[in-house]
Amino acid sequence: MKLQKEQFEKIRNKSKTIEVRLFDDKRAKLQIGDVITFVNQDDVNEKIKVKILNLHKFNSFKELYNSFPVSDFGYLNKEEILEIIEKIYSKEDEEELGVLGIEFELI
């Protein structure tokens, strides 16, 4: 999975332990114990591997963010993270597909 450099660095320095995505067909195949390779989209040679510890499905990003400490997502406040996610995913896709929190540990 590709990540923006800032998000990639948060995972590398262990300040982010949950990645969020739409619950699309690709994410529906994920299982606890799977290994994900995150790729820095600014430098595709930079990669990090994580192991999935848990999968958290919700109807909206707001529900997901309200269920965990915002620091698990690598942010300091919910308003900032909601503002950022709204620029990435459309409300229509969020409502149609739902969202997934991928809880992981660095390996």
Report on the structure:
There is one protein chain. The protein contains five helices and five strands, in the order βαβαββαααβ. The protein has 107 residues and is of the alpha+beta class. The chain has a single domain, classed as Roll (Archaeosine Trna-guanine Transglycosylase, Chain: A, domain 4), CATH 2.30.130.30. It has a five-stranded mixed beta sheet with strand order 1-3-4-5-2. It is globular. The two termini are 16 Å apart. The mean pLDDT is 95.
**Through-space gap between termini:** 16 Å
Global shape: globular
Query: C-alpha Rg, in Å?
Result: 13 Å
The structural domain count equals 1
Profile the largest sheet. 5 strands, mixed
CATH architecture: Roll
Average pLDDT score: 95
Q: Can you identify the CATH class?
A: Mainly Beta
Given helix and strand content, the structural type is alpha+beta
Write the layout of secondary structure elements.
Blueprint: E1 2-3, H1 5-12, E2 18-22, H2 25-28, E3 35-40, E4 47-58, H3 61-66, H4 78-88, H5 91-97, E5 99-106
